[in-house]
Amino acid sequence: MGLLNGHRGVVTGGGSGIGAETCRRMAAEGARVAVFDVNGDSADAVAKEIDGLSYTVDVTDFDAVAAAMTDASERMRGLTLLYNNAGGSTLSPIHDFDVAEWRRIVELNLTGVFHGFKAGAPLILASGGGSIVSTASISGTRPAAGEAPYSAAKAAVVALTASAALEYAPSIRVNAVSPGMIRTPLTELLLDDRGIGLESREQAKTPLDRIGTPGDIADVVVFLCSDLARFVTGQNIVADGGMTLHGSGVDGVLDVVTELLSDR
Ligand SMILES: NC(=O)c1ccc[n+]([C@@H]2O[C@H](COP(=O)([O-])OP(=O)(O)OC[C@H]3O[C@@H](n4cnc5c(N)ncnc54)[C@H](O)[C@@H]3O)[C@@H](O)[C@H]2O)c1
Hints:
The protein is of the alpha/beta class and about 260 residues long. It has one domain (about 10-264): Rossmann fold (3-Layer(aba) Sandwich). It is built from 10 helices and 7 strands. A 7-stranded parallel β-sheet has the order 3-2-1-4-5-6-7, with helices on both faces. The termini are far apart. The relative contact order is 0.15. Nicotinamide-adenine-dinucleotide binds next to helix 1.
C-alpha cells in the first residue's frame, strides 16, 4: 500500500534534480504523475520512467500552465497534488543585476508558483481536495550576499504558502519545503572540482556532514503530500542537514565567484 495511492499530481521542474526524484518517489508511492518542464526532452524522459504524462511548459507563462494543468487533470481524471518546484538563479551584487534578470528570477521563482496555485487549486478543489507543496529555499530564510532576487522570491513563496493555506483550508493543505545544499545540475558547477569546487566547504558547513541528495527533499514532499501530514498546513519545512544553524549555503560565494572571474 503506497503513501500516495489514488493521488494524481503535477510536478513543475520535474525533468531534473529534486523535481525528477520527487516524480519517481510519488510514482513509487502509488501516484499518477504529470511531469512539467520547460525542457521537454527531460520531462519526456522522466515521464517515460514512471509511466506518467509529459508537458513542455514554461511556468512563467500562465496560459501555458493553465492549459497543461487542465489537460493533465482531464487525462488523469482529476488532480489532487501539485508540487510547484521549478526555480533557479544567478549570483550578482544587487546594483549589478540587470532589471531584466531581476524580473526573470522573480517571475520564475515566485510568479511561477502563483501560476501553479491559480491554475491548479480550482482543479484540486473540483477533485475533492488534496495537497500543494512549493519549493522555497534556505536562501529565503537565511539569505546571503549575491542572491537578492532569489532570496526575496523564495521568502515570498513562504508567505504565499501561508496565505494559500488559510484560503484553501480545510480542502487543500498547503506547505513549502526549503532545501539546503542539494547536489543537482543547479549546484554542480558550485560543488564540483571541474567548476568552483566548493564541495568540502559546503560539507563542513553542514552538521549532518554531507551534501544533500534530491531524495532527501523528495521524501519530505511525499510526506507533506501524504496522510502522514494530515494535520500540517501553512508550514515551511527546512531540510538542510542543519546548515542554517551556522549560516547560509552561499555565504561568501559571491566573493569566490567574483575573484575567479577577475582571474580569467
Ligand atoms: N539544489 C539546491 O541546492 C537547491 C537548494 C534550495 C532550493 N532549490 C530549489 O529547488 C528547486 C529545484 O532545483 P534543482 O536543484 O532540482 O535544479 P535543477 O536545475 O536540477 O532542476 C530545475 C528544473 O526546473 C526546470 N525549469 C527551469 N525553468 C523553468 C521554467 N521557466 N518552467 C518550467 N521548468 C523550468 C529546469 O529545466 C530543470 O529541469 C528550485 O526551485 C530551486 O530553486 C535547490
